[in-house]
Amino acid sequence: MDFSKFGRRLIDGDKDNFRPHELHNQKVLRSTLEWFSEPGNFEMSETFARSNVSNWKKLVSEEKKNSSKVEVLAADWGDAVFDATKRNGVIYAALNMADAYTPGGGYVEGSAAQEENMFRRTNCHFFIDHTVMQQNERYHQGFSDLINAKNGMVYLDTQRVRVCVRGNEASGYRWLPSGEVFPFFELRAAADNLRGGGAFNRESSARKIEAQFKTLVHCGVRHVVLSAFGCGAFKNPPEEIATLYRDAVLRHHHSFDHIVFAVYVHPNYGPDNFTPFATILNPVNSLLQSPALSMAPPQLQKKLDILHLSDTHNLHRTIEARFPLPSAHILLHTGDFTNRGTEQEIADFNDWLGEIRPRFKYILVILGNHDVATVRHQWLNAKLDPSFALEPQTWWQQRLPNCSVLHHQAVNVEGLSIFGSSWDLWLKSERPGDDAVPTGYLNIEPQLPRHNFHRIPTGIDILLTHGPARNIFDCIGANQRSCHIWGSSDALTENIWRAKPKLHLFGHLHEQRGVWVKTDEGYVGGVEYCQDHRHPTAYFPTVGPPPVNYPCSMISCNAMKNHPDLENKKAHIAGPARLITATQVGQKWHFSTSSVRFA
Predict the structure, then answer these.
(1) N or C: which end of the chain has fewer CB within 10 A?
(2) Average pLDDT along the chain
(3) How far is residue 562's CA from residue 574's CA, in Å, rounded to a whole number?
(4) Given pLDDT bands bounded at 50, 70 and 90, which one contains residue 309?
(5) So what's the pLDDT on residue 141?
(6) Omega of the bond leading into 326 within 30 degrees of 0 (cis)
């Protein structure tokens, strides 16, 4: 894990340009990143952190648990997170009071604010890459809009924990012993900057604080360490910010078990923000005991987490070396879990599903073109009954007992209607379902439909196919200059317009890994695949976004293996499983994900 391939470039400061404490902080940062870059240390630190949480959870008793839902502490952010995590045995989200435009603020320069302190003590640097940062080391505009809550949400990564390995500034940034290393989820949000003398904008700050709570609730995070948001270097009035936080806590308290405000107190770091925060927020615990607020809210919403995998091509056992699978209610794999669909490949995939099955309540799988390659060859050579192509469900289910195989079949999972359309043996990879069925298929071609997309039920919640609809994530080529449409289906497009599924999940095209999410202004997102990481903002081109009236509220192509031929590299898992949250309000389901690349 080479730190030079992530984050901003480190600088070698000199005494003429930097103050002594900044030079010291630069050295601390470099030593932290060098330690994480040592072989095995990055992975080992996360192992220590997760193991510690597991051990602390075993020691938790009702007496040791926090008695107050809201706590205001005169504490460093890291000390507060460590104390709360150890006391309650759960991973907390921690607010990174981020610079709105520059990743990490002044962390490479050795600045002293909270965000920079967090970067010096943790592996946060390694989660700044080309997906969020331009070559000029500024955020992409879309990501800057995200942490500024322009669309009502902020950044929260619950798929990849951050790990703290160093103590606070007062300790000299001591290295934590392995038994004190702790994880956290980074909640990144930018406060209004009033250093230039601007007036406090209550509406803007209220929107940003509300977005923090909405994001946490959306991701199901019930434990969080917040802070005096923008009240230090950014000079926001602490009384106003504390009041906005109090109001947000009262609105959302049913969704949280523990909310900590860590307000750093030091004579060299600005005014006293702790007193107004404690004065305004400490009484909240008494307010929450009142009958009106203590009553459970009406159960209007139901949430299910969905994990989308696709095109893992026998690499399933390597996924978590780089991208640990988050917990979810439902795991969905949209095909090409093998290379050739041999009995050995299928058996190994099934064994792996059995190993991870305890982490998921439901596992549903459809077949891709690679998965059916071997049986297709046997079928064409009369080694299988001619009718096998029409009803292969039983054959596949017998070989994959650790999941449910969907072959043009609808199921209902806790109120979610899901239709899986597996790859048919006679489909062509370049235009599945659009070409006439070739002749000579064992004299049964009159029984073979051109496609089975007409079987997709109207009003389905989730549609699983292996390939894309026409003009949606369907560009391929030897390089970005020679890309062309391939692998998609006009027939599928026609039936999506008819059936109107809310969520469409697929894979098939590795260089088209990405997501489109519909907003009031149209679709946001795009391709996440980058062919040449020497040019990290050069995402592979695609067609799109879809028209604003397209039926799907979200479209995910999540082919997880890289494209070895394009990259001239060995096959490997290049992207994580996509975590999607389904929220039921009344009778309708809504889908959202935090993993969206903003163009």
Answers:
(1) C
(2) 89
(3) 5
(4) very high
(5) 85
(6) no
Mean pLDDT along residues 141-168: 89
Q: Find the angle CA(203)-CA(204)-CA(208) to the nearest 5 degrees.
A: 115
Q: Which is it for strands 475-476 and 362-365: parallel, antiparallel or unpaired?
A: unpaired
What single-letter amino acid sits at 431? R
Contact 292, 253 (CB under 8 A): no
| Nearest alpha carbon to residue 512 among 463, 569, 555, 460 | 555
- Asked if 501 and 461 count as a contact pair (C-beta separation under 8 A), the reply is yes
* Nearest-angstrom CA–CA distance, 94 and 83: 12
Distance CA 65, CA 152 (A): 32
Paired residues of 554 in beta bridges: 503, 517
SS3 296: coil
Task: Report which of residues 206 and 391 the model is more confident about.
Answer: 206
Looking up tokens 């039926």 gives 551
Residue from 401, 385, 392, 540 nearest 474 by CA: 540
Q: Which residue do the tokens 């509300």 mark?
A: 210
Length of the chain: 599
Cβ contact 282:292 at 8 Å:
no
* pTM of the predicted protein model: 0.58
Q: First vs last Cα of the chain: how many Å apart?
A: 27
Tokens for 41, please give them: 């240390």
The per-residue pLDDT for 566 is: 84
Q: Which 3 state secondary structure label does DSSP give 580?
A: strand
Q: Is the bond into 545 cis (omega within 30 degrees of 0)? A: yes
C-alpha separations of 177 from 48, 173, 180, 181, 185 in Å: 10, 12, 6, 7, 21
Pairing of strands 70-73, 475-476: unpaired
What confidence tens digit (pLDDT) does each residue in 332-349 have? 999 999 999 999 999 999
User: Cα(285)–Cα(283) distance, rounded to whole angstroms?
Assistant: 5
pLDDT in tens, 190-228: 999 998 888 999 999 999 999 999 889 877 899 999 999
Average pLDDT over residues 48-68: 83
Measure Cα distances from 24 to 11, 18, 31, 117 in Å.
Answer: 13, 10, 11, 12
Give the whole-angstrom CA distance, residue 48 versus residue 177: 10
Give me Rg for the CA atoms of the chain.
26
Continuous H helices in 38-164: 41-59, 77-88, 114-121, 141-147
List, in sequence order, the alpha helices (H) in 519-576: 564-567
CA-CA distance, 509 to 575, in Å (whole number)?
13
Give the pLDDT confidence of 550-592 residue by residue, as tens digits: 999 999 999 999 999 888 889 999 999 999 999 988 778 999 9
DSSP annotation of 548 reads: T
CA–CA distance, 485 with 94 (Å, rounded to integer):
43
Question: What value does the mean pLDDT take over residues 177-192?
Answer: 97
| Digit-coded pLDDT (tens) for 396-428 | 999 999 999 999 999 999 889 999 999 999 898
The tokens for 182 are 């702790």
**DSSP assignment of 137-200:** SSB-HHHHHHHTTTTS--EEEEEEEEEE-B--GGGTSPBPPGGG-EEEEEEEE-----TTSPPP
Q: How confident is the model at residue 13 (pLDDT cuts 50, 70, 90)?
A: low
Dist CA 48 CA 395 (whole Å): 43
pLDDT at 383: 85
- Higher-pLDDT residue of 433 and 188 is 188
Q: How far is CA 186 from CA 166, 291, 313, 327, 507, in A?
A: 16, 34, 31, 17, 29
